[in-house]
What we know:
The protein is built from 10 helices and 17 strands. It is α+β, with helices and mostly antiparallel strands. A hairpin with a 3-residue loop joins strand 10 (227-228) and strand 11 (232-233).
Amino acid sequence: MNRTVILVNPASGGASNAWDLFEPRVLESLGDASCEIEWTKKGEIRSQVESFLARGVDKIVLIGGDGTVSDVASSLFSTSGEWLGNQISIGIIPFGRGNDFFRTLAGKSMISEKNRLKLALGAIEKKMAREVDVVRVDFFDKNKKLLSRRALVNVSSFGYGGRVVQRAKDRVGILGRSFLGATGLAYLLQTITGLPEVSPTNVRITGDGQIVFEGPLFSGFFLNGRFNAGGVEWLKGCHIDDGFLDLIAFEWQSREKFIVRLPQWLKELPFRWWKNVPGVTVGSARKWDIELSDIASEMPTTSETGEKTSFIEVDGDPIENSAITSISMECVHRAMKVWSL
Length: 341
């Protein structure tokens, strides 16, 4: 039985068109022209992955972006939260909008498409598995009932960051609908154009049992990987295999304070330590809990203009559920095996 499956996500970037061009090179790198090839189907990735496990598949090569990796990783958590992917190795041919998880694996923020494919094919050819952390993300309602579960492999942004990703996914505005909306620049464009409608959300963030942040939030990031939004590195010292999930949170500012603070934040961004920077909280923990008691009133699923909004996104996938009032994130140390140079 062939134990390697290639899984192509036709909805990811240019994967559908590019696959016909790169299929021979991928099969050559794998050294097996008889690999089974499947295409992802909306809402059916979990059943596809469950089928792979039942058939004894131990290698999955993904043609897609961060969301595709996250969807597969999410499907490797059981309904009880147990990780089932110990025998699976994952190869990645990156064809998403940002491909930031692949940037993290490569250790480079800026990679041309040519070099990205060269690195990806080289990793598949060598089949050298690297063990990296994966984060189990659980979403609860006000009665602490589990609503859904996701795997986080790279970065989750929340507050204004979650809304920016929603806008980028929906390609909001004239520039969003242009060719730029399909590139990594989409996040920068939506960050700028969405500012007039930004609003605070009151949250309590607890790391390993200790309150780290409490009050009105502007935006924040949980960082398993180093990069997001097409190569932006928010925090120095993030490691994808250290067993910890890092946090950076920006306090809500009045418009007057925001005008003062924004230049301070932008000045610090190239250094990425954020020590003693006003309005910024950083932390590192194995388990994080986020309480959003008033999210339903502050972050509706649609804005006054009819635009969809999301408080949080996971690996580029906005979570659209107004019933969510709390979120739990727990790092599973070196659980996922990925091919990396």
